[in-house]
Design goal:
Low-confidence stretches: 1-6
Radius of gyration: 17 Å
CATH topology of the largest domain: Diaminopimelate Epimerase, Chain A, domain 1
InterPro entries: Phenazine_PhzF-like (IPR003719)
Helix content: 10-25%
Number of strands: 16
Number of helices: 7
Strand content: 35-45%
CATH architecture of the largest domain: Roll
Protein name: PhzF family phenazine biosynthesis protein
Number of domains: 2
CATH class of the largest domain: Alpha Beta
Structural class: alpha+beta
Distance between the termini: 11 Å
Shape: globular
Order of helices and strands: EHHEEEHEEEEHEEHHEEEHEEE
Length: 245
């Protein structure tokens, strides 16, 4: 969801917005007289430096507000980063994408691997990746196993807090065409499970060095599909959204 208040409210008040609207995240949009459009992201637990699906929603809302009938392009700012995004309208549906920035990834340490595996209840193949804040990518053999995944949320929150991780992005092995499913668990930021997580999808695309199409949200009754391409050292991530009233 998105909101555009005339001024930025105190953080404690802003943190109430996601719950009030029944959303995991809220993106606040500020349009200065000149310069990039500014975005800030909040969950009930506080502010985030970036939010991929929030950016996609903001692009759709900005395109709708501008009355765009063709491809809409705009420059955005989140924190100190300035980047371009685009959106193509189709009635009340919008396809949007942007460059989330450079992705860094690494092998987890032995301590990280032990605590995260204990929280997940099994020992998956793990990778630490980040666009700004690090998160853990956990490979699950197949979609059925991913759907059955039930992390220990208290242990997961403690482990993420200890290492400073955003959360765990569990994903099934991609098909030859790059299709897979994923679930994002982030109790440390007040989101036990996220309906969609574009930046983590971008992290996975960068790690795999491929174009992927990721199904998320089915376990929460809100299915979503995110696309991302990670090739030649760059990443682009996007998805479709529907304007609601």
């Amino acid at each position: 969801m998105w909101q555009r208040p005339p001024t930025v409210s105190p953080a404690v008040t802003i943190r109430r917005v996601p719950a009030a609207w029944g959303a995991s995240h809220a993106v606040f949009v500020r349009q200065p007289d000149d310069g990039p459009v500014e975005l800030r992201f909040f969950t009930s637990a506080g502010e985030l430096p970036a939010c991929g699906h929030g950016t996609i929603a903001a692009l759709a809302a900005l395109a709708e507000q501008a009355g765009a009938e063709e491809r809409f392009e705009i420059t955005l700012r989140t924190g100190e980063r300035v980047f371009d995004g685009w959106c193509e309208p189709d009635g009340r549906r919008f396809t949007a994408a942007f460059d989330p920035g450079p992705v860094e990834h690494r092998e987890p340490t032995a301590a990280e691997r032990a605590l995260m595996s204990a929280a997940l209840g099994f020992e998956p193949e793990l990778r630490v990746a980040g666009i700004g804040r690090e998160r853990v990518l956990a490979s699950v053999p197949e979609r059925a196993a991913l759907a059955a995944l039930r992390p220990d949320m208290d242990r997961l929150r403690d482990a993420c807090d200890h290492f400073g991780f955003l959360g765990v992005y569990g994903y099934s092995r991609p098909s030859p065409e790059g299709a897979l499913a994923a679930r994002m668990f982030a109790p440390s930021i007040g989101v036990p499970e996220d309906i969609a997580n574009a930046n983590s999808t971008a992290c996975l695309a960068a790690y795999l060095g491929a174009a992927i199409s990721v199904d998320m949200g089915a376990s929460l009754g809100s299915p979503a599909t995110i696309t991302a391409t990670g090739r030649d050292g760059g990443v682009q991530v996007g998805g479709r959204s529907v304007a609601a009233r």
